[in-house]
Description:
By secondary structure, this protein is mainly alpha-helical. It has helices spanning 2-11, 13-59, 61-84, 93-101, 108-124, 132-150, 154-173, 176-188, 193-214, 233-262, 274-286, 295-303, 308-327, 335-356, 364-380, 383-394, 400-416, 422-433, 507-518, and strands at 445-451, 472-479, 482-484, 497-503.
Amino acid sequence: METKKSHIALIQWKSFRLKIFFEGILVGLFAGILVVAFRYLLEKAELLREHIYTVLDVNGSGVTFLWFIALILVSVCLGFISHIVPMADGSGIPQVKGIILGHFKMGWLKIIIGKFLGGVLAIGSGMSLGREGPSIQLGAMAGQGVSRLLGRLRIEEKYLITSGASAGLAAAFNAPLAGVIFALEELHKNFSPAVLMSAMAASLTADLITQQVFGQKPVFNFHDLVVLPHNYYIYVVGLGFICGFLGFLFNRTLTKTMDGYNKITWLPKTFMSAPALILGGILGFFLPEVLGGGNKLIDSVGQANYGIAILLIFFTVKFIYTMISYGSGVPGGIFMPMLVIGSLAGAIYGNMLIVYFHIDQHFFNNFVVLAMAAYFTAIVKAPVTGSILITEMTGSFDHLLALIIVSVTAYMVSDILKTAPIYETLLARSLVKKNHNIYSGWDNKTLIEVAVCLGSKLEGKRIMDIAWPPHCLLISIKRGEAEIIPRGNTKIIVGDYLFALANENESADIKEALSLMAGTAQTME
């Protein structure tokens, strides 16, 4: 019955796209409310944390001891959440990628509760983690929840999960366009018209809700940016080279840190986050700027006249504390911390240009903004998302050319250094664990969608001449607005969308094989 309904949906493609467009609005509404509540509680938790440190400065060691006891109790709570809802651990973006690819199954309500509570506790208590990854997973689970409550098809559910993830990023950053591009570039890996329609509807709806609560102002305060002259673009390329190397260093250090945590056997899982929380408690007295996600630190870097020495301290401590915080495995992302670290690298670079190359100080903030995009691109390997995201977050499209140049440069350097995309790496690590959340033994049918890219193995070949993966059946080809029933002599061309039927327990392997053939897969070094 599921297969028959899926085939009918493909035949009625136009009405299907319209249907998921309106369902995307519903997903955006649900995801927007959820992420807005998450952001609101995190802001209140940050204010509470700042107030606590003010009280501790006044009242001395007795109250300070109680604060560290409270941090250990937070660690116990986080350990309990990780035990009950293991799929709520970490960023959440690898888990979303996993469910879209067919590797994981998730109970949407359980994940929402675990991620929401765990994220508020971990980030609110000061760990160097971001709200954006959790917001994306919350949005994706909102999409799955809408699908399950409405009794939608599995192929439809994957579109709604992708749309929910798009809405989650849009609501987290006040960046609807970046949410859509992220869904297409990073999660779905192709510019499917159906994904574009539903993701756009979800992102705009979630952003509208966010603006009602947090206003229309950009997340970062860089209103005084002046357009960078073309003769400064040589410095932009130099910044791209530096950020490409720093991105390689970030990914390599993060994986090594996680390996180090896996080797810890003397510490019970319940207390695995206790060292990071205690370290954060100490940093709260001496360097509170590095606690939490760090968006206030980005604003202060752009507005305050920090010297190179203090910027180096901020950079080093934020980098190390982010590794320690994320490595502990608690709910929380690296999205915002990587932007903060990137902004600090840009500030150091800009200061050095001013001191040693005597560039105009008015262009200092440009390098802060450009470094965020470049660093993000080097780590995530999503240059379009990085450029659009920073553009929306700073509220100016005047710097798009420089953003693209620095992002592409960082991407190329990262590629030369064989840096795997961080979320692909984290997903691969999750799959290695082979826990009970990986699909096993299901005999439900699902539809797989891949786009045929230029220069792929499928381009220009007839269906009868292709060695298709076993246990899959090609049932439809979408070429523009037309649907083609595949026959042996049907020739596949660039831009075709192929729909294949497969058993759900084999869908991840078949999806990977088809993606390699179609030229859409990313290989990890």
